[in-house]
Design goal:
Helix content of chain B: 40-55%
Radius of gyration of chain A: 22 Å
Largest sheet of chain B: 5 strands, parallel
Number of strands of chain A: 8
Strand order of the largest sheet of chain A: 4-2-5-1-6-7-8
Radius of gyration of chain B: 14 Å
Strand content of chain A: 5-15%
Number of helices of chain B: 5
Largest sheet of chain A: 7 strands, parallel
CATH architecture of the largest domain in chain A: 3-Layer(aba) Sandwich
Helix content of chain A: 40-55%
Shape of chain A: globular
Strand order of the largest sheet of chain B: 2-1-3-4-5
CATH superfamily of chain B: Cobalamin-binding domain
CATH class of the largest domain in chain A: Alpha Beta
Distance between the termini of chain B: 22 Å
Number of strands of chain B: 5
Structural class of chain A: alpha/beta
Number of helices of chain A: 13
Oligomer: heterodimer
Order of helices and strands of chain B: EHEHEHEHEH
CATH topology of chain B: Rossmann fold
């Protein structure tokens, strides 16, 4: 989108963000979070400046040690002269809509260093969903020029899977002896991990957890033939692409390593960083990186489209007397939900088809 | 279009600055703010003023609540305020101080730009109400 569509204040913000002003970056993310008018034009203008950061997603159950690992990893990147952006996602209280975000507490080793930009986000009832806000905030950090971006989130369902899929490389953190974690992995987190970390590896049960994970990773490999790819081959939209890439994949495939760390002392963090580098190289050297970029762009387009159409649907609902009155007649059995929705959608459908035809 | 519809929850940083290790009060405030529907970022104990400034700027908070029970408020609070000013984040941040602050210091802190000082015995509802009044008016 052309820059001249930005309001004067937004144009100034845009310039400040690209100029490396951290408080401007913070205000931009607030705009994204609050969906303040103008945020879309800003992101649209910033899109051209993105694509340079290495984006890592870290997920795992509460208390597994994600924030501590992120802290240690960040310190290594800083020692290396790289700048880092971190988005720490925490669930919010479903009752009050409020939340307490405490991930910063464990990110102390780089405190006071502005080149490490930490932003906490909660899952407050967003229209577009948290995954959209996260993806947009990653974009902001990327355009700002952060070399590394880390997205950290509690792994507890589809929402989190959506969030970490913003990343190029996904790390799943597990703590030893937690049979439940492994159950969780079976339930669908296994597919998204490019690397697995068994943190708190100084605990007695660590060896068992490592063995279990390794067995599962290899099982996954033999049963599907596709190796630990985090865009699992279950989504239809990726099938066409992955079919083309199949030969490449099997040649240079990636097997998710299981790395042992002790976050509090930093043991194993070197290996984790090495593993992350190796995965980034793998993405760059094979067509997998390109394939994932494609998938992410597809997801983004679909998500935005669905969100906008959802808004449109809300407007239609309001014009037809609101969802309450319709719900009442459904509850009274005067009509049924299918008939109601058919009636709502029909004129939309007709208008859309009409418009498409005149275009052609 | 209406996709630009604004959603707003007050963002607050509850911060413990300096060397005192008493954070019960900060925890109570953090919970009360959460229950009021605010987004609360808790800093953890023993933070340096620079760390608080970094967090307040990056998180773009509406409210910065500083809890100090050590008596060092006359050095710590001005340092935080100067830091915020250097990042151009002072004007749009409501600064609250909680703790044991003598009356004569309270006046001085307010002079510096602290919006309110909440001493022992303050009702939680009053603090929440104060935030609501001063943040929603934006």
């Amino acid at each position: 989108m052309a820059l001249d569509t930005l309001a004067p204040a937004d144009a100034a913000l845009y310039a400040d963000v690209l100029d490396g002003d951290h408080s401007a970056l913070a205000r931009l993310i607030t705009k994204i979070e609050n969906r303040t008018p103008g945020y879309r034009a800003l992101l649209s203008a910033l899109h051209d400046h993105t694509g340079n950061a290495a984006v890592i997603g870290i997920t795992g159950s509460p208390g597994a040690g994600k924030s501590t690992l992120v802290d240690k990893l960040t310190r290594q990147y800083r020692n290396n002269g790289e700048t880092v952006g971190i988005i720490a996602v925490d669930p919010s209280s479903p009752y009050s809509g409020g939340s307490v975000l405490g991930d910063r507490i464990r990110m102390g080793s780089t405190a006071g260093d502005m080149e490490v930009f930490v932003r906490s986000m909660s899952a407050r009832g967003r229209l577009g969903g948290l995954s959209m806000a996260t993806a947009d905030a990653v974009k902001a950090l990327d355009a700002f020029g952060k070399d590394r971006i880390i997205v950290e989130t509690v792994g507890a369902g589809q929402n989190e899977v959506d969030i970490v899929e913003t990343a190029e490389t996904v790390v799943v953190v597990v703590q030893p002896g937690s049979g439940d974690d492994v159950q969780l992995l079976k339930a669908g987190i296994l597919e998204i991990g490019d690397l697995f970390v068994v943190n708190k590896a100084d605990m007695d049960e660590a060896a068992g957890t490592v063995a279990e994970l390794e067995a599962m990773v290899h099982m996954d490999e033999s049963s599907t033939g596709v190796l630990g790819g985090h865009h699992a081959p279950d989504s239809t939209e990726t099938n066409a692409l992955s079919a083309v890439d199949e030969s490449d994949d099997t040649e240079t495939g990636w097997t998710a390593p299981v790395i042992q760390t002790v976050g509090t002392t930093g043991v194993g963090v070197d290996e984790l960083r090495g593993g992350l580098e190796a995965h980034q190289r793998y993405l760059a050297d094979t067509r997998e990186g390109e394939r994932r970029r494609q998938t992410r762009a597809q997801t983004e387009i679909r998500r935005l489209l669905r969100s906008d159409l959802g808004e449109l649907a809300e407007q239609v609902l309001v014009r037809r007397g609101g969802v309450e009155s319709l719900a009442e007649s459904v509850a009274r059995r005067d009509t049924d939900p299918y008939a109601v929705v058919d009636e709502l959608v029909e004129p939309l459908e007709a208008a859309v088809l009409d418009a498409l035809e005149t275009e052609e | 279009m209406s996709a630009d519809q604004t959603q707003r929850a007050a963002r607050c940083l509850v911060a413990k600055v300096g060397l005192d290790g008493h954070d019960r009060g900060a925890h109570v405030i953090a919970r009360a703010f959460r229950d009021a529907g605010f987004e609360v970022i808790y800093s953890g104990l023993h933070r340096a003023p620079e760390e608080i400034v970094q967090a307040a700027v990056q998180e773009d908070v509406d409210v910065l609540g500083i809890s100090i029970l050590s008596g060092a408020h006359n050095t710590l609070v001005p340092t935080v305020i100067e830091g915020l000013q250097s990042y151009d984040a002072f004007d749009d941040t409501l600064i609250l101080v909680g703790g044991i602050i003598p009356d004569e210091d309270t006046a001085e802190l307010k002079e510096l730009g602290v919006a309110e000082v909440f001493g022992p015995g303050t009702a939680i509802e009053d603090t929440v109400e104060f935030v609501r009044e001063h943040v929603s008016s934006e």
